[in-house]
Write a structure and sequence with these properties.
This protein is mostly beta strands. The chain is 5% helix and 58% strand. A hairpin with a 4-residue loop joins strand 7 and strand 8. The longest helix is centred in the middle third of the chain and has 6 residues. The protein is globular. It starts with 5 loop residues before the first strand and ends with a strand.
């Protein structure tokens, strides 16, 4: 079995004027969508709240997955670690398709959900 491909993301969350949580994702200091195309089996996305977001009181509590195209949502699972500052997203990439992923975070007793970074699973070439 080959070693898992790891994707590291830093996440910033701010509330807009309508009290809606706005999620911004970064990889290596560059803003990205937070989703992407996965071609490797058994990949891992590690999403870490940045320091400013942690100071605001946000913590990860869950992630949900649904099928957008195909049947690959069942390939995804999550684990919240580091007292809610990190969420690990595992993807077996056993099924092709596009999955929608929604993060749930809590802050000061309120729950907020992210917009949907989409993941597309493709067979290895």
């Amino acid at each position: 079995m080959s070693e898992s491909k790891v994707y590291n993301f830093t996440v910033n969350i701010e509330l807009d004027s309508n009290k809606k949580a706005v999620f911004t994702y970064f990889q290596d200091g560059q803003q990205v969508s937070g989703g992407g195309v996965v071609t490797e089996r058994d990949s891992l996305g590690i999403y870490t709240l940045n320091e400013e977001t942690q100071k605001r009181g946000f913590l990860f509590s869950a992630a949900t997955f649904s099928n957008h195209e195909g049947d690959c949502a069942k390939d995804f699972s999550y684990e919240v670690t580091n007292a809610g500052t990190v969420i690990n997203i595992s993807d077996t990439d056993e099924n092709s398709g596009t999955a929608c992923m929604i993060f749930t975070v809590s802050c000061n007793g309120e729950e907020y959900q992210s917009e949907d970074p989409q993941f597309e699973n493709k067979e290895e070439v």
